[in-house]
Amino acid sequence: MAYEISEIKKIGIGLVGFGILFSFLGIILFFDRGLLALGNIFFLTGIGLLLGWQSMWQLFIKKANIKVIVYQPQLVLRGYGAPIQAFLYQIPVIGWILQYPFQLFGQLRRKRA
After folding, report:
1. What does the pLDDT look like over 50-83, one tens digit per residue?
2. Mind giving me the DSSP string for 26-56?
3. Could you tell me the residue ranges of all domains in the chain?
4. Can you tell me where the transmembrane regions are (predicted)?
């Protein structure tokens, strides 16, 4: 084999895999905080072992990458606004709290017209 993977890199690959698995399960199970946190920890630790800690730190600190990290979730979740809003409105107490200001605003607009 031309390129052998060291034991540290094997562990890093395993941790990245577990990170992806736990993140996927966290999303499937309605954004379970515990699973998402474990997924993030495993993933970042695995990346640190694969790239090296200094390289990983430099990767996240670059000015161009910080912009991507900040704006990427907005781009990914842009099309899911209406379904997320409909789901949140169906939750018993939280849905009423979220809908109340919009209902009040709608009633005020109808009274003016």
Report:
1. 988 888 888 777 777 777 667 666 666 667 777 7
2. HHHTTS-HHHHHHHHHHHHHHHHHHH-HHHH
3. 1-61
4. 12-31, 37-57
